[in-house]
């Protein structure tokens, strides 16, 4: 059995994520992919306000911050100025599917040469677990204690991945989970 070791692109610092949150696992998967592909020196990540805000502390490659909902706009600018770089965004559902919906849809529709990692935990996790655009029907949150009820003013979940998959500029969309070891392996 191989020894478990820290991948080079993942810094040895404790994270701020809540216990049980998948962000730490996803950070490791991203770092492993960057190292395995040998693209560390030309990778640029963009993280927004929200749970991802401290990503620059965890990855040992170039990472910049963007205003809430604007990582894809920032990534577009970086990629157009530095087309030789591998540019990706790391966004939560509040960022990508709420305040950043316009930037998300337009970057996808233009077919920008970017990777977008969308971490959907179905709530606004950093601010107390309020309902997000992706909160599932019946799911209880801090602001929907009886569960999300579409006909009582909560609306329906925004199926942003399915919407993006319909756009002609999008090359690849996949929904994965990191809730079990088997799913982590499959996600990678």
CATH topology: Rossmann fold
The N- to C-terminal Cα distance equals 19 Å
Q: Helices and strands, in N-to-C order?
A: HEHEHEHHEEEHH
Shape: globular
Give the helix tally.
Answer: 7
Quick check: average pLDDT?
A: 95
- Count the strands? 6
CATH architecture: 3-Layer(aba) Sandwich
Give me the Rg, rounded: 17 Å
The largest β sheet comes out as: 4 strands, parallel
Please describe what this structure looks like:
The structure is a single chain. The protein is of the alpha/beta class and 188 residues long. The chain has a single domain (23-127, 159-187), classed as Thiamin diphosphate (ThDP)-binding fold, Pyr/PP domains (Rossmann fold). Helix content is 32%, strand content 13%. It has helices spanning 23-37, 55-58, 71-81, 93-99, 101-110, 160-165, 181-187; strands at residues 43-47, 62-65, 86-92, 115-119, 123-124, 130-131. The strands form two sheets. Strands 2-1-3-4 form a four-stranded parallel β-sheet, with helices on both faces. Helix 2 (55-58) links the parallel strand 1 (43-47) and strand 2 (62-65). Helix 4 packs across helix 5. The mean pLDDT is 95.
């Amino acid at each position: 059995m191989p020894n478990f070791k820290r991948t080079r692109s993942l810094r040895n610092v404790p994270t701020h994520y809540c216990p049980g949150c998948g962000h730490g696992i996803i950070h490791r998967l991203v770092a492993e992919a960057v190292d395995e592909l040998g693209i560390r020196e030309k990778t640029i990540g963009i993280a927004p306000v929200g749970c991802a805000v401290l990503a620059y502390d965890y990855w040992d490659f170039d990472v910049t911050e963007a205003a809430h909902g604007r990582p894809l706009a920032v990534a577009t600018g970086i990629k157009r100025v530095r087309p030789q770089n591998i540019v990706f965004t790391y966004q939560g559902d509040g960022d990508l599917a709420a305040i950043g919906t316009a930037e998300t849809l337009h970057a996808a529709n233009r077919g920008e040469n970017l990777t977008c990692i969308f971490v959907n935990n179905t709530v606004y996790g950093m601010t107390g677990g309020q309902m997000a655009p992706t909160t599932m029907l019946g799911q209880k949150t801090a602001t929907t204690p009886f569960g999300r009820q579409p006909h009582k003013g909560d609306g329906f979940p925004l199926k942003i991945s399915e919407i993006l998959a319909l756009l002609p500029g999008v090359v690849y969309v996949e929904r994965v989970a990191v809730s079990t070891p088997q799913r982590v392996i499959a996600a990678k």
